[in-house]
Amino acid sequence: MPAPREPQAVTVARAHVEAWTHHDYDMTGLIQFAQAVVPGSARIIASTGDDRNALIMLTVQADFGAGQVTLPGSRLYLLDDDSKIKSEHVVFYAAQ
Prior knowledge:
Helix content is about 20%, strand content about 40%. It contains 2 helices and 4 strands; from the N terminus they run H-H-E-E-E-E. It has a single domain, classed as Roll (Nuclear Transport Factor 2, Chain: A). By secondary structure, the chain is of the alpha+beta class. The model has no long low-confidence stretch (mean pLDDT about 90).
């Protein structure tokens, strides 16, 4: 039995996470946050979605100058009719 096809929005969202966690980006706001992310440290905990919506739960390692910390977070994506990211909502939680 073939494996089920991953929904389009989940595929796009996973690719986006891989890109920015490897510092492959060109958006000013993303650069300011993502510079602290340790390249390649993203670990996707769970993902779900359909062809237009995706929810990714993940952790990344980041270093804001006082040593590495683990940041758990989630990202909610909405794709447009051309399968491009129309909107993204990001929540990260950091505590000592």
